[in-house]
Design brief:
Number of strands: 14
Largest sheet: 8 strands, parallel
Helix content: 40-55%
Number of helices: 19
CATH superfamily of the largest domain: Phosphoenolpyruvate-binding domains
CATH topology of the largest domain: TIM Barrel
Strand content: 5-15%
Distance between the termini: 33 Å
Radius of gyration: 28 Å
Strand order of the largest sheet: 12-6-4-3-2-1-14-13
């Protein structure tokens, strides 16, 4: 007997136990509603998806070709359509996640309106978006199962036993749209207690994986902007601990923490670290400060001075009160950040880089793996990179170093359309195409994400529609560019009433009221034009 039939049997027994008062309850309808609502709470989601991530991490350790991927989604509908598309084209959601970008929450989900990525938006907007994403993914489950249940009824009414068994098999083997979310908590939105409180809200909403960065919370900047300020390791580790405690309190024992370091692009610190003995973490952090040696007589009022190996060192301090690191120390600080984070509770790393260069990433990961052999990264395939120019310049530099003639190319102008069909451009595109696979194999990248792709796709598609609709094309711009493509590519939301739950609602009406139900999906429903 199938799992579906077992559920019906269990509910039939429950109905019988409750006697005639439940005479109107159909056990099969109740079973359908249960199956359509597999995840009752956000914690159910978090526990289920945490197990998926842990399995995927172990599989990557054994075989780097099985890396994972995600796209950043700023609305539940966008996340839902992404997963529906993945299931349609790839037949499985395996190794496919969602990414929740703090940048997009700030830019698109704040009551203040569009904001820069500086932790100025409402902190609860983050947990609210997690809940919204999973609400839409669960609705995608309900919709797809509802279509299967309707098909099952049709097969039974037609007396097609073979078709009935085929559909029952699909129901039992149904793969949920619910997948892990890697959720951005920025720098924690305050002190360690504030970090814990927000992490708990995010986990309750369904997050199994939280990404936190080592910037100063009240000075936080986008990873691809200037002016980033980092905190000493002890401050950052306290926030990692806060997130772990939130997971443990809520029973998500295998929750995943991603420790992000912005040290590569951060030249400033707000604090001089506390150091208790030579060579401890605080001392290592302070060793990167840009200092000048002075004598006691040279000390001025208000000077901050370090004593190292019997020498007095005055860190260089800016008018803002911030201290600066020595130039050229970014990679060394990144490596120390990563090793320290993994040794103190983090599970995965995120190194924010200024360009997508496998050699650069590999160089740091190789050093980290000397201390932590299974260290692995979540990597931002960022829209802030000019991928075309970066990779064309990488090919140019490789060819030049190999002695290949590059005289016909102007390195500074390689973005130009005139180079699009050249050998160099084609080689660059080939490297972009395999970047994720190559970086997973060579540079320890377990998860590839694009932080804000759907921000850009929404703008691009809207521009294309507006350009034609408000000009000579008129309605043809929508019909040719949107609806016709939806029909021909079998985009589910071409039947937008169905996508919004109309058919599910009709079926529920029949469950609740039988033949007296007033349905919306009759012969006059214009959605029938899309059969």
């Amino acid at each position: 007997m199938s799992a579906y039939q077992n559920e019906i049997k269990a509910l039939a027994a429950l109905k019988e136990k409750n006697g005639s008062a439940w005479s109107a309850i159909n056990p099969e309808y109740a079973a359908r509603m249960r199956i359509q609502n597999r995840f009752k709470t956000g914690l159910d989601v978090a526990k289920y998806t945490a197990a998926i991530m842990r399995k995927d991490m172990a599989e990557y350790d054994a075989d780097s070709s099985v890396y994972t991927q995600s796209l950043g989604c700023w609305h539940g509908f966008i996340g839902q359509q992404k997963l529906i598309s993945i299931k349609k084209h790839l037949k499985t959601t395996d190794k496919k996640y969602l990414y929740l970008s703090g940048w997009m929450v700030a830019a698109l989900r704040s009551d203040f309106g569009p904001l820069p990525d500086q932790s100025m938006h409402e902190k609860t907007a983050v947990s609210s978006l997690i809940e919204e994403l999973y609400t839409f993914l669960r609705q995608a489950d309900a919709r797809e199962l509802d279509l299967l249940f309707s098909a099952l009824d049709d097969a039974r009414n037609a007396g097609d036993k073979a078709k009935e068994q085929e559909i029952l098999k699909q129901i039992d083997g149904f793969e949920t749209h619910v997948v892990p979310i890697i959720a951005d908590i920025d720098a924690g939105f305050g002190n360690a207690e504030a970090t814990y409180l927000l992490a708990r809200k995010m986990i309750e909403a369904g997050a199994c994986c939280i990404q936190i960065e080592n910037q100063v919370s009240d000075e936080k900047q986008c990873g691809h902007q200037d002016g980033k300020v980092t905190v000493p390791h002890e401050d950052f580790l306290a926030k990692i601990n806060a997130v772990r405690y939130a997971f443990l309190e809520l029973g998500v024992d295998d929750g995943v923490i991603v420790a992000r370091t912005d040290s590569l692009g951060a030249g400033l610190t707000k604090q001089i670290a506390v150091t208790r003995q030579e060579g401890d973490l605080g001392d290592k952090y302070n060793a990167f400060l840009d200092c000048e040696e002075i004598s006691p007589a040279e000390m001025k009022n208000g000077d901050v001075v370090l004593n190292r190996n019997g020498k007095l060192l005055r860190p260089k301090r800016l008018a803002s009160g911030l201290f600066q690191f020595r130039k050229g120390t970014g990679e060394d600080r990144c490596v120390l950040d990563c090793i320290t984070s993994l040794q103190n509770g983090a599970d995965l790393l995120w190194i924010e880089t200024e360009k997508p260069h496998i050699g650069q990433i590999k160089g740091m990961v190789d050093r980290i793996r000397e201390a932590i052999p299974n260290a692995k990264l979540v990597y931002n395939n960022s829209p802030s990179f000019n991928w075309t120019l970066n990779f064309r310049q990488q090919v140019f530099d490789t060819w030049a170093a190999e002695g290949k003639d590059v005289a016909k190319y102007d390195r500074a102008k390689l973005m130009s359309v005139e180079y699009d069909e050249t050998e160099l451009a084609l080689e660059a595109d080939a490297r972009i195409r395999t970047f994720q696979r190559d970086a997973a194999a060579q540079a320890g990248i377990f998860h590839h994400l694009i932080t804000l792709p759907t921000y850009h796709t929404a703008a691009l598609s809207t521009d294309n529609l507006a350009k034609g609709y408000f000009a000579e094309e008129g309605m043809l711009a929508y019909v040719k560019g949107v609806q016709r493509q939806e029909i021909r590519q079998s985009i589910a939301c071409v039947k937008h009433q169905n996508m919004a739950g109309s058919d599910i609602g009709d079926n529920h009406k029949e469950y609740f009221a039988g033949e007296a139900a007033l349905k919306a999906g009759g012969k006059d429903n214009t959605m029938n034009q899309f059969h």
